[in-house]
Write a structure and sequence with these properties.
This protein has about 140 residues and is mostly beta strands. It contains no helices and ten strands. The protein has strands at about 5-10, 15, 20-30, 40, 55, 60-70, 75-85, 100-110, 110-120, 125-130. Strands 1, 2, 3, 6, 7, 8, 9 and 10 form an eight-stranded antiparallel β-sheet that branches. A two-stranded antiparallel sheet has the order 4-5. Strand 9 (about 110-120) and strand 10 (about 125-130) form a beta hairpin.
Length: about 140
């Protein structure tokens, strides 16, 4: 048996055409199997890393997503984030914190957003992020 507790919250504020969404994720678990560990950044991943590249039984993530329409359903997006993922230990330890930024384009479609972006972490790791449709 294992235990886990997770909290995810976000709220979109609209200032004219600008959409600003703060995101907070906190997760804690004990003896979690791999498939139930917390991926840093959740389904949208952490800027600069592959989705689910860092997993652990502890996660702290804070992000700010800003977007603005360009034309029709096409928009630019910027995600700035800070977070940490670990196995065991203090949830808010002083080590292994990452910062990251992802910049790209997204378009709304009937199957969900189609996104293409480039991300970079504070460790210098970078990644191209492409998503077609909504991930469940």
């Amino acid at each position: 048996t294992y235990q886990s507790l997770g909290l995810v919250t976000s709220y979109t504020l609209e200032l004219g055409l600008l959409a600003i969404t703060p995101i907070v994720r906190i997760g804690w678990g004990e003896d979690l199997p791999l498939q139930d560990q917390f991926p840093l950044g959740g389904a949208q991943g952490f800027p600069g890393l592959a989705v689910e590249q860092l997993r652990g039984d502890r996660e702290v993530f804070g992000g700010l997503d800003v977007s603005h329409p360009i034309r029709g359903t096409l928009r630019w997006e910027v995600l700035a984030a800070v977070g940490r993922s670990a196995n065991g230990g203090d949830l808010f330890a002083d080590t292994d914190w990452l910062g990251g930024v992802r910049v790209g384009l997204a378009a709304g479609t009937p199957i969900g957003d189609v996104q293409a972006a480039y991300g970079l972490t504070s460790t210098g790791i970078d990644n191209v992020f492409v998503r077609i449709g909504r991930w469940f």
